[in-house]
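One-letter codes give the sequence; the fold follows as tokens. An example follows:
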Amino acid sequence: MKRREFVTALGVGAAGAVLAGCTGSESGSEKQQASAKQEKIKWKMVTTWPKNFPGLGTAANSLAEKITKMSGGRLEIKVYGAGELVPAFGVFDAVSEGTAQMGHSASYYWKGKAPAAQFFAAVPFGLNAQEIASWIYYGGGLELWKEVYEPFNLIPTAVGNTGVQMAGWFNKEVNSLDDLKGLKMRIPGLGGEVLNRAGGTAVSLPGSELFTSLQTGAIDATEWVGPYNDKAFGLYKAAKYYYYPGWHEPGSVLEGMINKTAFEALPADLQEVVMVATRAANQDMMDEVTYRNAVALKELVNDHGVELRELPSDVYQELRTISDEVVFEEAQKDDLSRRIYDSFINFRNLSDDYQKISEYAYLNGRLMTGKG
């Protein structure tokens, strides 16, 4: 072999060896990454709802299933109903402390820990389901919500919405505001503060205790959610009158809370899976309850003889006046609450201007023209 050919061959061989070495190194790195991606991570999700309860409990199950499937089984979520791992109202502490990595509940239950959290569940005469989702994801609400939960090592997200709720089940008629005086009613959050201001007594109870409390007279009235969930609890067997509309909860957000330390330990792709799954579960529940509430209301009235009542207009207006006062006063308690309140009200005003010529105008026109 000539010298020039020998040198060329030697160079090619050396380069090939180097490239082979690089390829081997990269393959090793890729193998490590692939191995890490195959590692199975197991999380616990604790909820405030009874195990597998229609709508609320099944929404938590749906979220867990979505995360598990979307991750290809790499992130597996096991759901625990209220009382299985922690009490119904122990969800916040369990996730904050890392006993569980996720929770499914409603943020107004945590007003004793973070008063501003109430704004992200339901505000009396506030935003409906479509509006509150828009505020959270596009109007700055999510950033403020994260700020509320930052001291607790929690990341919040919306995972479902009940839509406009019912005003509740009553064992006595409501003909004037005086009928609310002395009334002992299960009603959480800011709505409970409004009832107290109106002369009633707000009681906080988990869903599992509502039927017995109403049936035995421990409480005079209760709100829960809407026809679908209320029917599942059999509340129509314990009270005579079913009032509407749910002024106290016009679009109640179900909350997904995530332990921040656990979340940040996930690979970036699994973090994205978790957040996308919560958005999908949020929309899925809104779709489901819109259908199931319509079906359940018809069954309650036609099959079970439920007496459906509209709140008198003067009672409704007086509750609106009291609500505005209570919500404003609640917002003055600290700087963060004031900023959340300003953001919320500004968005509501902005939305009102548009809804008047869109959703409100269309629905009013549809109702006036009657069924086809």
